[in-house]
Amino acid sequence: MSSPKGHDLSTFQKFILVTLRLAIGWHFLSEGLGKLTAYPGWSAKGYLMGSYGPFSDLFHQIAQNQAMLSFSDLAVTYGLLLAGFCLLLGLFTRMGCIIGIVLLTMFYVSYPPWAFMPGVSTTT
Hints:
By secondary structure, the protein is mostly helical.
């Protein structure tokens, strides 16, 4: 495996990257499977309605519109599954990474941990 600039990775570096890819892939896959099988009727509505931050109005609108909420539920569940399978199998890893980045970005901006945001505790 060589990087775009021609720098070869050591065996240890390759091992660490593959291990990290598998761990992240398993996490995505297990969350997707959990939403699909362990929690029948799972919905993102509560998560979206509780969101705060600069995009909270958008997330609240998604939660209040049944069609958008249904799409959101399917997109999250199958996005997690697809990202997990891609990373675990090592196939279409770039696509899996992009899906994972989009999902994690949406999760992050719905509950930003910024100290100046309401709902964030600054005490330890």
